[in-house]
Write a structure and sequence with these properties.
This protein has 299 residues and is an alpha/beta fold. The protein contains seven helices and twelve strands. It has a five-stranded parallel beta sheet with strand order 3-2-1-4-7, sandwiched between helices. It has a five-stranded mixed beta sheet with strand order 10-9-8-12-11, with no helix packed on it.
Length: 299
């Protein structure tokens, strides 16, 4: 009996090729386009980015002759991802919204929709692999080490993995583009998306300033000398290179590249050269450890 699979189709080359491969494997493929964020606009057309992506998804669905469903999850995305992201940054943390998005939005809502359609599986164009063992399902990195996305899937659960397929896990990006070109896909050379999940590439400081007010503080070197001022420690992350280009005011002449080594409360940044021992931590504290396959022993 033919199995039905619900595929997240973004309009990009990866999900398009994933749909093609699944069809060739005999699946009944149903595509879904997720509208999660409509605030980001193309600087040239001033059209919401998601509109351009939706048009390409519709075009690819027509080419592949598969049905396409549009899911509007913007309310949930802003409530559960964006709000939490702002809250974390305001506390001086650097969250990864892509990980949270996959955990809370993309995979749960895909599976919920799949069940309503009586589909057997869900699929995405992620570069990752799933291996079934006697005890559990394992999440493995994709064959293409330069495009591996298993890190962004690190909060998925056994239940998630049990009904998910990653068709591109054994392929390299170059192979995916080649397949798309051979099949005359209009997006075969389309640039890969970057930045925040469903939002795209944005100036992070400008994005955060929409909700988080500036709070000026000092930038000190490793000898506690004042070398500049910053608009708020929440806008920066450990390891980031400092400079005027990211909204800082460097008052002392610096002859070498300096990086954020520490964000000291209440509002001070310590910046050091890349060879400084302050950038080489010996102890890392892990909070809220998530085990994808908890039944397997930790060695």
């Amino acid at each position: 009996m033919q199995k039905t699979i619900l595929l997240a189709l973004s309009g990009g080359v990866d999900s398009s090729v994933a749909a093609l491969l699944l069809k060739k494997q005999g699946y009944n493929v149903i595509a879904v386009f997720m509208k999660n964020f409509s605030d980001t606009k193309n600087p040239l057309t001033m059209e919401c980015n998601y509109v351009e992506e939706k048009k390409m998804a519709q075009k690819m669905a027509a080419i592949l002759n598969i049905p396409l469903i549009i899911m509007d999850l913007e309310k949930e995305y802003k409530r559960d991802i964006i709000k939490l992201m702002y809250n974390s940054y305001s506390k001086g943390l650097t969250p990864n919204p892509d990980i949270l998005c996959n955990k809370i939005i993309k995979f749960p809502f895909l599976w919920k929709k799949a069940k309503s359609l009586k589909a057997d599986f869900i699929a995405t164009g992620h570069y990752a692999r799933i291996k079934k063992t006697k005890l559990s399902y394992e999440l493995l990195e994709g064959k293409d080490k330069t495009k591996d996305q298993s890190y962004f899937l690190s909060q998925l659960t056994q239940d998630d993995l049990s009904h998910t397929i990653f068709p591109l896990g054994e392929l390299k990006k170059s192979e995916v583009r080649k397949i798309a070109k051979e099949n005359k896909f209009p997006n075969h050379s389309k640039k890969s998306t970057s930045g925040i999940c469903f939002i795209g590439k944005v100036n992070m400081k400008s994005f955060l300033e929409k909700k988080i007010k500036n709070k000026k503080g000092a930038i000190l070197d490793e000898n506690n000398n004042l070398i500049g001022r910053h608009p708020g420690i929440m806008y920066y992350t450990i390891g980031q290179r400092i400079g005027n280009r990211i909204g800082m005011e460097i008052t002392n002449k610096i002859n070498k590249k300096l990086y954020v080594a520490e964000k000291k409360k209440p509002n001070t940044i310590i910046a050091v050269p890349k060879d400084s021992p302050l950038l080489k931590k010996q102890i890392i504290k892990i909070k809220k450890l998530h085990l994808i396959n908890p039944k397997e022993a930790i060695s």
